[in-house]
Each structure stands twice: as structure tokens, then as C-alpha cells.
Design brief:
- The protein is 85% helix and 0% strand.
- It is mostly helical.
- Helix 1 runs antiparallel to helix 2.
């Protein structure tokens, strides 16, 4: 269970960095939009994972 939180946070960070690199290089606006949407989805999943792990540790 403990390894799920760093994996979720790392996934968010990687997608965020990919989106920032794409924007800084002047890449496709469509690609940047897709990456930012994926980031929001991964953030939501990361929050769910963190909440589940906190709940799991309570028992």
C-alpha cells in the first residue's frame, strides 16, 4: 500500500513536466491540452489513492 502513493505522485509529476517541456519548446497546443487533461485525471486518482491509504492505515 505504501508504494502506491509515490507512484501516483510521480505519475502526476512526469505528466506535468512533459506538458511544461512541450509548452516551452513551442510544441503542439493540442498535445499540451491533452497532457494537462491527463494531469488533472492523474491528480484526481492520486488523491483517491492517498485517501484510501490513509483510510487503510486507520484500521
Amino acid at each position: 500500500m505504501n508504494s502506491l502513493v509515490p507512484i501516483a505522485v510521480a505519475a502526476v509529476a512526469i505528466v506535468l513536466l512533459l506538458g511544461l517541456v512541450n509548452m516551452m519548446r513551442g510544441g503542439s497546443a493540442h498535445r499540451s491540452q491533452q497532457l494537462m487533461r491527463l494531469r488533472v485525471l492523474l491528480q484526481f486518482l492520486a488523491i483517491l489513492v492517498i485517501m484510501f491509504v490513509v483510510w487503510w492505515r486507520a484500521f
